[in-house]
Design the sequence.
């Protein structure tokens, strides 16, 4: 039986690990060396956040699982990340827009979590909020440059926004796991962040000459373990070594 | 293990032992910016004597800082070489590290090494406003950011328009 605090911490950790892994896939492939470094550095921030969160989740669970057991030895249905972070890198515009959508949500989220009642989650959040501020600035600047760039970069960036928008609704969902913790001041109520998210996004999109897609259809399920087919492929690479050579250390 | 005898080789009043242990731990250099000690950086938070054992408390600059393992190992080795048996290294996340903790000497060393030190207090204004970063080589402030992220998580890549040299800038966080 999972406690709400374990599930909540795991969801945050899985978001960070999967997005961090996605960014790491760019290493050696980015359009310019500076972006190779930027995407790798942001991935590193996220994987660092994931490590602290997995360690804490393992302590909360109390069954002796450490960060590696939680990252490398769970099946796809056990992952609780939002669907947005597992979406493919696509072209550079897709990666940048995915990062913008995540950071525009995660920055105010961690700001609020840093003031919440759980000391460990608050400590992780207080570090993460500083890192996410840079991720947000980076992805916002690129969105503006691409959106207000050439007809081709504009078209691709608008397409990325249209493709990924359906995954933003899940960021603001709550279920009984969160509600149990929100009442105790441990979890953040994401619905309260939506206005800030949209305002920040609208500022960037206006300057980028891009149009925010109308509300409409929302795709969700990742937080309950129902994923797109992409996550299985991510895990087959991410977990390969520990599956092929269980317990391998170096 | 001889935990109870841990500090015996440097026996003396506890305050003196702690002072010596601090000096030893503080001499460990950052593996990525080897002119800065972990004390200059503000990564070394405390040195305590707990149950006859020296405990050094460190905090990461960034969540994913890959240097933490090497730093912890470096402190352990330095303390053991100085005669402190079985030292303990503890990592804490709170309060979150800030560039404000880099000492004035640390900032001067960074600049001399060719890395522009953080330009301002790590406030929201410093982060979202326009930073004025002086070139660590010629001192000119006619500089421009090339990339938000540099060779390590803590640095950005800038260039100087006056002397035309690129340089690393230690970001405010």
Sequence:
């Amino acid at each position: 039986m999972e406690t709400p605090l374990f599930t909540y911490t795991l969801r945050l950790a899985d978001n960070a690990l999967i997005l961090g892994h996605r960014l790491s896939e760019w290493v050696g492939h980015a359009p310019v060396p500076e972006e190779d470094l930027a995407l790798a550095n942001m991935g590193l921030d996220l994987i660092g956040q994931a490590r602290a969160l997995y360690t804490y989740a393992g302590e909360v669970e109390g069954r002796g699982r450490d960060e590696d057991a939680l990252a490398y030895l769970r099946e796809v249905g056990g992952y609780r990340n939002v669907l947005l972070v597992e979406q493919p890198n696509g072209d550079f515009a897709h990666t940048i827009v995915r990062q913008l959508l995540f950071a525009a949500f995660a920055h105010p989220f961690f700001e609020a979590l840093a003031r919440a009642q759980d000391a460990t989650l608050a400590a992780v959040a207080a570090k993460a909020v500083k890192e996410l501020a840079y991720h947000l600035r980076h992805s916002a600047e690129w969105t503006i440059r691409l959106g207000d760039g050439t007809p081709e970069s504009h078209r691709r960036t608008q397409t990325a926004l249209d493709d990924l928008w359906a995954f933003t609704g899940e960021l603001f969902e709550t279920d009984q796991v969160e509600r149990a913790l929100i009442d105790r001041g441990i979890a953040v109520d994401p619905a309260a962040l939506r206005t800030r998210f949209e305002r920040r996004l609208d500022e960037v999109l206006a300057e980028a000459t891009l149009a925010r897609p109308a509300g409409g259809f929302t795709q969700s399920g990742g937080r309950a373990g129902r994923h797109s087919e992409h996550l299985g492929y991510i895990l087959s690479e991410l977990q390969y070594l520990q599956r092929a050579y269980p317990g391998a250390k170096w | 293990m001889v935990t109870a005898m841990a500090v015996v080789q440097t026996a003396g009043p506890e305050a003196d032992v702690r002072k010596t242990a601090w000096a030893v731990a503080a001499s460990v250099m950052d593996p990525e910016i080897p002119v800065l000690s972990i004390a200059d950086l503000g990564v070394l938070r405390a040195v305590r004597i707990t149950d006859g054992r020296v405990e050094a408390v460190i905090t990461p600059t960034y969540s994913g800082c890959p240097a933490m393992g090497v730093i912890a190992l470096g402190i352990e080795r330095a303390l053991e070489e100085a005669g402190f048996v079985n030292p303990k290294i503890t990592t804490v996340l709170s309060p979150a590290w800030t560039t404000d903790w880099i000492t004035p000497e640390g900032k001067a060393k960074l600049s001399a090494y060719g890395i522009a030190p953080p330009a301002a207090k790590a406030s929201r204004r410093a982060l979202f406003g326009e930073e004025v970063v002086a070139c660590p080589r010629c001192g000119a402030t006619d500089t421009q950011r090339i990339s938000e992220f540099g060779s390590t998580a803590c640095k950005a890549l800038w260039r100087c328009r006056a002397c035309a040299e690129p340089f690393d800038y230690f970001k405010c966080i």
